[in-house]
Amino acid sequence: MSDFQLNPHYAADDVKQEPIRAGFGRGLVKAGEKDERVVALCADLTDSTQMSHFAEAFPGRFVEMGIAEQNLVTVASGMARAGKIPFTSSYAAFSPGRNWEQIRTTITLNQQPVKIVGSHAGVSVGPDGATHQMLEDIAIMRVLPNMVVVAPGDGIEAEKATQALAENDKPSYLRLAREKTPIFSTEHSPFEVGKAYVLRQGDDVTLMGTGTMTYQLLMLARLLEEKGVSAEVVHVPTIKPLDETTILESVRKTGRVVTAEEAQIAGGFGGTIAELLSEKAPMPILRLGMQDRFGESGAPNELFRHFNLTSDTMLPGVLEFIKKVPQYKPGF
Amino acid sequence: MTMTVKQLEEKANDVRQDIIKMLEEAGSGHSAGPLDLAEIVTTLYFDIMKVDPKNPEWDERDYFFLSNGHTVPVQYAVMAERGYFDKKELMTLRKLGSRLQGHPERTKLPGLENTSGPLGSGLSQAAGVAYTLQHIDKQKHRFVYVVTGDGELDEGNIWEAMMFAGKYKLGQLIVFVDRNNIQIDGNTEDVMPLEDLAAKWKSFGWHVQEIDGHNVASIQDAASMARAIENKPSVIISHTIPGKGVDFMEYDYHWHGVPPNDEQAKKALHELRTLRGKISHEGEGI
User: Fold this and answer.
1) For an interface test with B, which of A36, A67, A75, A109 has the most B Cβ atoms less than 10 Å from its Cβ?
2) Which of A39, A265, A300, B14 could form a disulfide with A287 if both were Cys (CB 3.0 to 4.6 A apart)?
3) Residue range A212-256, pLDDT digits in tens
């Protein structure tokens, strides 16, 4: 059995919810308390990205950068050269959306332990529309050598992930969502960079999620159970480096894979898993997420339904996939 | 290290010869910028900066950021002359397995402070160090020196860094702009005009000086003045001649991104060794 302790109330209608970014705000203050080398830089979105808590706690270690994302990450690279552990924050659409080359050259090739925090990722930004709904960040960050990519599943995990990244001595990307998200983990759940976690055991299909989608897959597994399908749920908060052992162990047992992400499936989390399976355990895969299109304005919950990113809107497609595709038992 | 102006000038001439030999051997690379930066980078490493070639990570050192990474042959040559590594290694420039990458990579060669090549980002990295020294670690006796190209100033990242350094009054940040007036597509004022350059920096809150970038005494004086200005970052607009020291390369933007061939290198070395025929050298005759 998994030793991941699920919130016992995760499936309740009144499950506690909070924005994932709130966990980042708490985690950064804790990281700052533990290590005085931690500094924070923000591009004019300090409240919005929840960096404000750090700025209040450690005003001498917070730097307001103005609306200048290229300078944001390159100054951070310099501060890392001077011995600091810089966290940068902005909306993911702007950082790493706008400043990718600077991240590539001055942070990953240069191997500086800068932590790029991209808030408001995914369609759950809602009414702001497609310009602000960053969907390509997983793809552009995971392709960079030396870069760690983490998309926490809820606020509690974001708090732990922030503290862990402060200590990993590597260039890292932390992907955060704006909207309130149900809390499915607990203070006692494990979190380690590079680990995936089996949240629920099953035999017929592995549902694999990252970020906000893991909660939806937990709920989907319950709906599938009502239809007589036994689903295993694997939470993959670290997209790079990927926990191949846990993932392959699960999929070799179930023989079918569904991935879900609030991002482009091309090059994103679904792309990551497809690459792994095609090399190490070829089997059918259904990738849920953004299908090569941009988002649009709307309420977050409307958009989740519109793009089939809720458990009930995922259900028909997943049932069809399971019905249509025979369970694959790899011979290796 | 105490050297006279004449000794520094001679060292810069040695550096130019190193650059020609390196580029000829490499068969690719940039000629004009490295040659015109010889006095500035030589004077920085041999006279102005506190550095320890045997301990590149010395925690009392001054920092040097080369923002226009394509001119790195001049930095490699000066570092070798200064004793960071053996001069023989200069001949490995741009070759497989070399620590001397075509554009500088910090993780390959001890003594480099940054990885650069894509233009416009070195000033920001230097500003990050300067901010840390001044506002967080309170190490006011250490300085951060930067060399940028002038064509490089087309990049938006530069102007973001200029605003940032001005806002935070980074008095320990000292920038030399290599004002050689050329970039790949032509003269800077034709490709994307920069003038009035001094007024632009000034309006961003910088202390501005303009010097002859080949005059060692001027470089020393300007750096002294810049260190004395505590409440502003400093820029030293250094007027240089692209390809300086080699007659057929000077002022010609076509030499921005190409190396000399064997014959051209021979001619260039002869010019440098004889100061264009003014002196005899190693039996070359006048």
Assistant:
1) A75
2) A265
3) 999 999 999 999 999 999 999 999 999 999 999 999 999 999 999
Query: Hey, are the CB atoms on A39 and B163 less than 8 Å from each other?
Result: no
DSSP three-state, residue A147: coil
CATH superfamily ID and name for A17-182: Thiamin diphosphate (ThDP)-binding fold, Pyr/PP domains (3.40.50.970)
Average pLDDT of chain B?
A: 96
Q: What is the pLDDT of residues A196-207, one digit of tens each?
A: 999 999 999 999
**Residues B55-66, mean pLDDT to the nearest whole number:** 98
Cβ-defined contact of A75 to B131 (cutoff 8 Å): yes
B37 contact partners, CB below 8 Å, separation of at least 6: B71, B74, B147, B178, B213, B240
* Banded pLDDT at B285 (limits 50, 70, 90): very low
Helix (H) or strand (E) holding A161: helix A155-166
Domains A17-182 and A197-324 fall in the same CATH topology = yes
Is A102 close to B157, i.e. CB distance below 8 A? yes
**CATH code of domain B5-274:** 3.40.50.970
Predicted TM-score of the model (pTM): 0.96
Averaged over B75-102, what is the pLDDT? Answer: 98
Q: Is A69 a catalytic residue?
A: yes
Q: Which of A106, A107, A112, A144 to mutate to test the interface with B (most CBs of B within 10 A)?
A: A106
A83/B132 CB distance under 8 A: yes
Q: Are A257 and A202 in contact (CB under 8 A)?
A: no
The pLDDT of B36-47, averaged and rounded, is 98
User: Are B115 and A105 inside 8 Å of each other by CB?
Assistant: yes
Q: How far apart are CA B77 and CA B45, in angstroms?
A: 11
Residues paired with A150 in a beta bridge = A174, A238
The CA distance from B117 to B97, in Å, is 19
From the number of C-beta atoms within 10 Å of its C-beta (0-12, 13-18, 19+), residue A101 rates as middle
**Fold topology of A197-324:** Rossmann fold (3.40.50)
Interface test with A, best of B164, B175, B204 (most A CBs within 10 A): B164
Q: Do B128 and A61 make contact, defined as CB atoms within 8 angstroms?
A: no
Q: Could you state, in order of their start, the residue ranges of all structural domains in chain A?
A: 17-182, 197-324
Report the complex ipTM: 0.95
Task: Count Cβ atoms within 10 A of the Cβ of residue A286 and give its class: 0-12 exposed, 13-18 middle, 19 or more buried.
Answer: buried
Confidence of residue B275 (pLDDT cuts 50, 70, 90): confident
Chain B residues with CB under 8 Å of A75 CB are: 124-125, 127-128, 131, 161, 164
**Shortest alpha-carbon distance between residue B54 and chain A (Å):** 19
Between A and B, how many CB-CB pairs are < 8 A?
104
